[in-house]
């Protein structure tokens, strides 16, 4: 799933907030047939539990605070490399200067200096040695001046290109929802020492870990979740959270992380249906943002008017493996273009398959350039398609034929940014007459509709 869905631009304030009663609909607190019945208010104490590996620290904080390194520097006269960076830290007006160094020339970075007091000197408590980790190294624990000593964060170096400031622990507990116990945890993902802060994944805010499938563990942000976001169990800390029972709860975590309270949202609800097997999306109404997962093609939503910044859907035979497509619905131009969910009714989201390919061909004589992209049935851009193995399928093939049907040139268009394909060709001979362009782009259940036929210049 492209990173764009994690930093989607939010639209204008919704004209109708979730739960606003429309004329002729059910009153507050009533649920449509088949809607999950939420449990009563629940509170559970949370206990501090350390992460076991650097990978867990990064996965379960969505990368924490990530910073790219400046280009490596070599001291005058040769010697070991060093890399500089500036670490933003909550509560400080300026980033903390940092330097990574090597104890052995041509080795990996295994020394860290953080100039906490900004005096450009290595003082006590500002120098750290590395613990090797898969793909990098871990430094710490870091005793941040002015912060509580526990739990101290770590700095994780990844591929000698960037660092992550990450929490070393989560606050974990077990919440009772009716007869079901749900394992969960709060994570200080923005590493500022305060729990329960609202935000969206990839931006400032904390995370909520939810054992959605009941397997006793959490699925983090690097365990193939980009191909299956409905299975992701490290979710943005939102006020309204969809729990494993499918109902929505208002979640509160105090700054010290000692407890979590979940209160059922009693507003009327409707249903949303999509033309797919499973899906995940974000639904936005004013300041309220819902991370919605659909383990089937239908979910419950609070009644209201929504914008959908991003959508990932799956199609195909689950036994053979599901294909996934990432879509960014166009920003609604008017209220009628928004997603409207009415109490007791089932709404359908415009978009999804069948997809259409869009080919732009330019040039004259022997020189031709091509750009190929994909849109869904509503004209929304498709930014990614992944096969059952979580990888992109082979690049599409383009064939050029002349007026006689002779193939002038054929080849694949390599993938570029945002699932667009580009190529520039020099034809072997100057074509006679108008060229016809044919595209083959096998994308499993998302293969572009053949009804479009050949596309011409």
Condensed summary:
1% of the residues lie in helices and 39% in strands. It has 457 residues and is mainly β.
Secondary structure: elements and pairs:
Elements: E1 42-45, E2 47-50, H1 54-59, E3 65-68, E4 82-87, E5 96-101, E6 111-114, E7 127-133, E8 136-139, E9 154-158, E10 162-166, E11 169-177, E12 180-187, E13 207-210, E14 234-236, E15 240-242, E16 248-252, E17 259-264, E18 269-273, E19 278-285, E20 288-294, E21 298-302, E22 304-306, E23 311-315, E24 323-327, E25 339-341, E26 346-348, E27 356-364, E28 367-375, E29 382-386, E30 397-401, E31 407-412, E32 421-426, E33 436-440, E34 455-456
Parallel strand pairs: 18-26
Antiparallel strand pairs: 1-17, 2-11, 3-10, 4-5, 5-6, 6-7, 7-8, 8-9, 9-10, 11-12, 12-13, 13-14, 15-16, 16-17, 18-21, 19-20, 19-23, 22-25, 23-24, 24-29, 27-28, 28-32, 30-31, 30-33, 33-34
Structure write-up:
With 457 residues, the protein is an all-beta fold. It folds into 3 domains: 3-11 and 40-59 and 169-348, no CATH class; 65-166; 356-456, Sandwich (Immunoglobulin-like), CATH 2.60.40.1930. It is built from 1 helix and 34 strands. It has one helix spanning 54-59; strands spanning 42-45, 47-50, 65-68, 82-87, 96-101, 111-114, 127-133, 136-139, 154-158, 162-166, 169-177, 180-187, 207-210, 234-236, 240-242, 248-252, 259-264, 269-273, 278-285, 288-294, 298-302, 304-306, 311-315, 323-327, 339-341, 346-348, 356-364, 367-375, 382-386, 397-401, 407-412, 421-426, 436-440, 455-456. An 8-stranded antiparallel sheet has the order 3-10-9-8-7-6-5-4. The longest helix is centred in the N-terminal third of the chain and has 6 residues, at 54-59. It is flat.
């Amino acid at each position: 799933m492209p990173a764009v869905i994690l930093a989607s631009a939010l639209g204008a304030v919704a004209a109708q907030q979730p739960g606003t009663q429309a004329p002729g609909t059910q009153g507050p607190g009533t649920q449509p047939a088949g809607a999950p019945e939420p449990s009563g208010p629940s509170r559970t104490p949370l206990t501090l539990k350390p992460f076991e590996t650097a990978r867990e620290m990064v996965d379960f904080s969505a990368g924490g605070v990530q910073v790219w390194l400046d280009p490596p520097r070599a001291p005058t006269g040769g010697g070991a490399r060093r890399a500089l960076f500036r670490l933003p830290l909550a509560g400080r007006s300026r980033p903390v200067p940092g330097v990574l160094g090597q104890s052995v020339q041509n080795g990996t970075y295994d020394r860290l200096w953080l100039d906490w007091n900004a005096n450009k000197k290595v003082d006590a408590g500002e120098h750290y040695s590395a613990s090797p980790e898969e793909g990098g190294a871990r430094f710490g624990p870091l005793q941040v001046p002015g912060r509580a000593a526990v739990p101290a964060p770590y700095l994780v170096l990844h591929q000698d290109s960037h660092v992550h400031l990450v929490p070393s622990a989560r606050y974990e507990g077990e919440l009772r929802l009716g007869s079901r116990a749900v394992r969960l945890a709060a994570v200080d993902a923005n590493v500022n020492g305060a729990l329960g802060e609202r935000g969206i994944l990839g931006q400032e805010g904390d995370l909520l870990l939810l054992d959605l499938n009941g397997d006793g563990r959490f699925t983090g942000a690097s365990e193939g979740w980009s191909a299956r976001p409905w299975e992701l169990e490290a979710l943005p800390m939102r006020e309204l959270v969809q729990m494993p029972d499918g109902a929505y709860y208002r979640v509160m975590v105090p700054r010290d992380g000692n407890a979590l309270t979940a209160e059922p949202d009693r507003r009327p609800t409707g249903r949303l249906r999509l033309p797919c097997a499973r899906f995940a999306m974000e639904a936005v109404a004013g300041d309220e943002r819902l991370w919605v997962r659909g383990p089937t093609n239908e979910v419950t939503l609070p009644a209201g008017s929504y914008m959908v910044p991003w959508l990932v859907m799956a199609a195909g035979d689950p036994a053979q493996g599901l294909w996934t497509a990432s879509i960014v619905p166009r920003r609604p131009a008017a209220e009628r273009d928004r997603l409207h969910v009415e109490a007791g009714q089932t709404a359908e989201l415009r978009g999804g398959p069948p997809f259409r390919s869009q080919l732009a061909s330019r040039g004259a004589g022997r020189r031709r350039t091509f750009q190929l992209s994909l849109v869904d049935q509503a004209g929304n851009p498709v930014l990614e398609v992944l096969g059952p193995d979580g990888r992109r399928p082979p690049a599409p093939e383009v064939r050029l034929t002349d007026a006689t049907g002779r193939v002038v040139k054929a080849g694949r268009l390599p993938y570029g940014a945002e699932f667009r394909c580009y190529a520039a060709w020099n034809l072997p001979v100057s074509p006679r007459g108008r060229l016809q362009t044919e595209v083959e782009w096998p994308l499993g259940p998302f293969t572009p509709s053949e009804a479009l036929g050949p596309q011409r210049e």
